[in-house]
Amino acid sequence: MMNFLEYDKGVAKFNQELRLSTSPITSWDFYGDLINDFRAINSDTKKISQLAIESKWSNKNWDLKDILKDEVIVVTDSSLTIVFASQNIAKMNGYKPDEVVGKSPRMFQGEKTCAVTSNEIREAILNKVSFEKKVINYKKNGDLYYCIIKGFPVFNKSGDLSHFIAFEQAA
Length: 171
Description:
Elements: H1 5-17, H2 28-54, H3 64-70, E1 72-77, E2 82-85, H4 89-93, H5 97-100, H6 115-126, E3 131-138, E4 144-155, E5 161-170
Antiparallel strand pairs: 1-2, 1-5, 3-4, 4-5
């Protein structure tokens, strides 16, 4: 039978000489935030995929999980009523998804929003073409922020306009 006394002494010496830098408990918040972000991305991806299936969208090859890491996704129906907003919208402008669903994207506009840019977006929507614009929007608390919006019409398999999808990022 082996004598583990020497082994135990060696392990004790190793642990005493080991220089560990410990992390404060507050670093657990970062981990928790990261996990919550991953959960939100997965949940949002599933919801958009379900909407695409129900609405019979023609194939769109967007990498939604990758997009949601940096951008907010807003989906409107063909009459421009918001039907989906990703959970990360709250980080961008303070609104929770359930506060914007059922409303128009115009809710983010205000006095300092450029009318010319708004008209260009409206024209693209009427013509059912993609657009990319930088606009001044308003947060829930009234603060201004620049928002880069990449908007796309989404058609169903019959070729009819189904939705508009926008990928948005604060600039």
